[in-house]
Write a structure and sequence with these properties.
The complex is a heterodimer of chains A (279) and B (254). By secondary structure, chain A is of the alpha/beta class. Chain A has a 6-stranded mixed beta sheet with strand order 6-7-8-3-9-10, sandwiched between helices. Chain A has a 4-stranded antiparallel beta sheet with strand order 2-1-4-5, with helices on one face. In chain A, helix 4 runs parallel beside helix 6 and helix 10 crosses helix 11. Chain A has a domain of 168 residues: Rossmann fold (3-Layer(aba) Sandwich), CATH 3.40.50. Chain B is mainly α. Chain B is elongated. The chains are: A alpha/beta (279), B mainly alpha (254). Chains A and B meet through helix 3, strand 6 and helix 4 of A and helix 1 and helix 5 of B. Bound molecules: adenosine-5'-triphosphate (ATP) and magnesium ion. Adenosine-5'-triphosphate (ATP) binds next to strand 2 and helix 2 of chain A. Adenosine-5'-triphosphate binds next to strand 2 and helix 2 of chain A. Chain A: InterPro entries: AAA+_ATPase, ABC_transporter-like_ATP-bd, ABC_transporter-like_CS, ABC_transporter_ATP-binding, P-loop_NTPase. Chain A: This is ATP-binding cassette domain-containing protein. Chain A: Belongs to the ABC transporter superfamily.
Chain lengths: 279, 254
């Protein structure tokens, strides 16, 4: 691959518009996503995040504007686009009658991979689902289902991954696991566009953050660039309290790889009895 | 993309056949109502019905019962398709490099297999109740062909229903009129006992042509022009229903 090609954005969105009846959801969206980067699309409920993701994954056609994935237009060359993307929709799309493993094998077959069984086993292990692999997905908890859903999207290592609110409804530990997966993907060169309602998720994960508001991208930049938009910080002395998330993780045991503040000893002691009761 | 259409259809049909295998009650339920009807007609009502053919009433009845089996069986196709659409799995398939036509064809093939199993069960019960046939191998194959065509035609209608439905109940309700049609045909009683208007409808609707053809094939008698009429109806419905289903799918997926 030539150097010029690698400089071309993995996703290029220009003037995308989409209305549903009288409701003008997208009113000229422009966005570039560099290969191998993680971009978080922020926006309140109904801002049109899912609509944009569905346009990029060739599920709906835009009313105006163009969008391309690796240079392939989503309207003119949907087949080529589908070969390089995967979509994890806002609501888990797993086959509840099949087992977790069968779900993965199914997707591997549909992606025409060589050894579907092995691909499935690898992903089960990667998403801590090996033990549940032989159970019907319908019996999974919400978090397990979401993990299976994401695992199904990663079958065949598509170079561009769309994750629509990947951590909504997950407990803090599963969230951290999903974050780790996303980081790992980007390290391996995968381009990730994720939507989220959680500002901390965007802060934690994204190389760039795009804010979708009233149908357009109102801001697009790195966290530092976005912060620089606000008036210069004033210095105030505030007592540092552990966040509820720190407390929760201390109680249930696995603080994992949170790079947040360590839990203070007093909190841990105070929390200990409650932890006993929980067990 | 089309190079993969066959593989994709096979993989997706394997998936929905697994659904059927994991809820075998759908096949049993499909067979139960027709079997109950058969018992009712043979042992309760049949004695009072003069078919004017001289043969046993089971022989007269079975073709219609088989069509009712298929008509109720295809409701599961709309049901499964509706659930797939609702659960988002169709969206997943559509965002993947999967041949578009495969999603529908997989359901159609599954319907064919499931319905043929139900039909076989019902024929088995028919044999226990005294159904006898003089059909040659060729006649059996012809009868099988007619039933396959009938199933395909009704299945594509079921696909339209599954694609258009807004509720689970709506998805399967379409089959009620289909189940009812055989009652206003030559399936249970000869049409010449019916009032003129009803008889006219019965004689000119597709079920009568199909039933008469199957009956002649099973009895080892010449089928005459009935078979062409039946084929014309079935192929006609099949072509229209399939085009309708594909158009509905395209429209829905825009
Ligand atoms: N198929 C559709 N028909 C009609 N209206 C739709 C359709 N899809 C989306 N909308 C509307 O478009 C708007 C944007 O929806 P969208 O799902 O893209 O928002 P979102 O940013 O993903 O919201 P959320 O954070 O709640 O997931 C909403 O008002 C929604 O009701
Ligand atoms: Mg959304």
């Amino acid at each position: 691959m030539s150097v010029d090609l690698s400089l071309e954005p993995a996703l290029r969105v220009r003037g995308i518009e989409k209305s549903f009846g009288d409701l003008r959801v997208l009113r000229g969206v422009d966005l570039d996503v560099a290969p191998g980067s993680i971009v978080a699309l922020l926006g309140s409920n109904g801002a049109g995040k899912t609509t944009l993701v569905r346009i990029l994954s060739t599920l709906v056609a835009p009313d105006a504007g163009t969008a391309s994935v690796h240079g392939h237009d989503v309207v003119d060359q949907p087949g080529r686009v589908r070969e390089s993307i995967s979509l994890t929709g806002q609501f888990a799309a797993v086959d509840e009658v099949l087992t977790g493993r069968e779900n993965l094998v199914l997707v591997a077959r549909l992606r025409h991979l060589r050894d579907p069984e092995r691909v499935a086993d690898d992903l089960l292990a990667r998403f801590s689902l090996t033990d549940a692999g032989a159970r019907r997905a319908g019996t999974y908890s919400g978090g397990m289902r979401r993990r299976l859903d994401i695992a199904m999207s990663l079958v065949g290592n598509p170079p561009v991954v769309f994750l629509d609110e990947p951590t909504t409804g997950l407990d803090p530990q599963s969230r951290i696991e999903v974050w780790a997966t996303v980081r790992e993907l980007a390290r391996g060169g995968t381009t990730v566009l994720l939507t989220t309602q959680y500002l901390d998720e965007a802060e934690q994960l994204a190389d760039r953050i795009a804010i979708l508001h009233r149908g357009t991208i109102v801001q697009d930049g790195t966290l530092a660039e976005l912060k620089a938009l606000l008036p210069p910080a004033t210095v105030e002395y505030v007592e540092k309290q552990p966040s509820l998330e720190d407390v929760f993780l201390a109680l249930v045991g696995d603080a994992g790889d949170t790079d947040g503040t360590p839990v203070t000893p007093t909190t841990t002691e105070a929390a200990q009895p409650a932890g006993e009761e929980l067990r | 993309m089309t190079t993969h259409a066959l593989t994709d259809t096979r993989v997706l049909a394997g998936r929905s056949l697994r659904h059927v295998l994991r809820s075998p009650d759908t096949i049993i339920t499909t067979a139960v109502t027709p079997v109950a009807l058969m018992l009712l007609f043979v042992y309760v009502l049949g004695g009072a019905i003069d078919t004017g053919t001289g043969g046993s009433y089971v022989d007269y009845l079975l073709p219609g019962i088989l069509l009712i089996t298929v008509a109720s069986g295809v409701a599961y196709t709309s049901y499964r398709l509706f659930l797939d659409l609702q659960g988002g799995i169709v969206e997943r398939f559509r965002s993947m490099p999967v041949a578009r036509s495969s999603v529908l064809w997989a359901h159609v093939l599954t319907s064919l297999v499931a319905n043929l199993v139900s039909v076989t069960l019902v024929v088995g019960v028919g044999l226990l109740l005294g159904f006898r046939t003089d059909a040659s191998v060729g006649a059996w194959l012809a009868a099988l062909g007619i039933i396959v065509l009938f199933t395909l035609a009704l299945t594509w209608l079921a696909v339209v229903a599954g694609l258009s439905a807004r509720t689970v109940d709506g998805a399967s309700a379409f089959s009620y009129p289909l189940i009812f049609l055989p009652f206003v045909s030559s399936a249970f009683v000869p049409t010449d006992t019916m009032p003129t208007a009803v008889a006219w409808f019965a004689e000119n609707q597709p079920v009568t042509a199909v039933v008469d053809t199957l009956r002649a094939l099973f009895a080892g008698q010449p089928v005459g022009s009935d078979i062409w009429l039946a084929l014309a109806w079935l192929v006609g419905i099949l072509v229209v229903a399939q085009a309708w289903a594909v158009a509905t799918y395209r429209r829905r997926m825009r």
